[in-house]
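Try it yourself: sequence plus 5'-O-[(L-methionyl)-sulphamoyl]adenosine, in.
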Amino acid sequence: MKNNFYITTPIYYPSANPHMGHAYSSIVADFFARFKKIQGYKVFYLTGTDEHGQKIETAAKNNNKNPQEFCDDISKIFKELTKILNLSNNDFIRTTEERHKKSAENIWKILEKKKEIYLSKYSGWYSVSDEAFYSEDEIVEENGKNISKQSGSLVEWVEEESYFFKLSKWEKPLLKFYEDNPKFILPETRKNEVISFVKGGLKDLSISRKSFKWGIPVPTNKDHVMYVWLDALTNYLSALNYPDTKNELYKNFWPADLHIIGKDILRFHAVYWPAFLLAADIKPPKRVYGHGWILSGDKKMSKSKGNILDPLEIIKIYGLDPLRYYLIKEVSFGNDGNISEEKLENCINSDLANNYGNLCQRVISFCEKNMNLQISENIEFNDYDNLELSSFSKNYLNISNFIDNQDINSYISFIVDRLFSANKYFNDQEPWKKKNDKVRLNTIIYTSLELIRKITILLYPIIPQTSLKVMNIFNYTEKEITFDSIKNNNFIKKDIKLTKIGILFKKIEKND
Ligand code: MSP
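Structure, out:
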């Protein structure tokens, strides 16, 4: 079995500062990366910035900067965000780097050599904001303006000489590819959208622009720059040192296991990208998962709509792990999710402070008051203890499957369910009444601690900082966080002294 896992986020346009939507894709990808890591996989997690094209050139002009300077400034902010969000990414790629240019040029040359590209003229609609070409039937007129039906973005009429990729030729091979790889596109609804789009007929795709300069020059004709999406998608290869296909990174990690993207860029990843790769004789990625949008007041959060929730502000007020937890739990993965500070506060209070925080606090305080934090070897599990503890080993395969199907919702439901159950266990067992029965007392405490440990391991991919803090109770570090260990009911050494922890999550006081 291949023990490597390659996961990517979209590379973000540094046209404006990052917002919650960007943070969301990155946090979700980090969740999968961290889970795979504790499962024993060698993980390569990539993120970065997409710096060419008309959108960036225009944004730079509006800020009176040259495009490179402009990208340097904003890309730096995206890179800092990876630290602020505690992402475990292994690399941060920028499409203005030489390593990427080399890789994109190489793809172009291969496509040209294989006669997949021809020179002609493009006349049609283009949206600078989406960096996308749209056909006539994808456009509507609203208040005298032409906009894309799909994204609502303004489009303009473009007529210029352009290179084309023979996308039409790949219609059937793509349909066959989707059929042979039924989980290439998830969730299922998005897969159906893509298949009907492809069945509706594919036109050849314009892949170069001539009317502006901010891009990678076409290697064989410097009057053109490469279409920004062909350039950008190649980033997933560049980070593995493509075109050097003999190097370890490429050999170990290509084809990518999972591209996490928003549903807005599904067509590029699920149609154009595999078509480019099939045409270049490179294996397509294994899966593209198109998640929903973070909405603010029913609208997609975006700079142009002016409805941004700033992740930095939220983190300053509530902390990082609450935000990570909230986004992963409350935005039903795959669907759109409306987020608000009020919902975030409720989630912190109910799940993190009352449920998880309280469980840890109660057990440790009890242990401190009654056992001086010293656990004992003298324990005997009864049926109730065993039932509670073994619900993890029983669900071990289910949990792996949740992850492999990107079913975050079931994963987190399992955790929440186990948290309730562990709290109930502690209440029902009433250790405060067992002071005269040392064996039972020791066993209840040991079982509760094992439950805390197991839940904490499952929480690690979501709230890594807090999980590490809790693991510190047992003097464990990151290396003791392994998925396999949730099957073990006797993992915690029985003769250790526990370390006290402070409050994990402060309850948010409401004024009403
Ligand atoms: N540069 C392209 C992607 C190239 S990938 C080869 C791009 N960049 S973007 O800056 O517009 O970011 C797009 C991604 O950010 C979306 O696909 C999505 O993953 C995330 N989001 C941006 N706004 C979002 C929301 N409001 N909600 C959720 N995610 C969104 O497109």
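One thing you can check immediately is this: Residues 10-13, 21-22, 24-25, 50, 232-233, 235, 261-262, 264-265, 293-294, 300-302 surround 5'-O-[(L-methionyl)-sulphamoyl]adenosine (CB under 6 Å).
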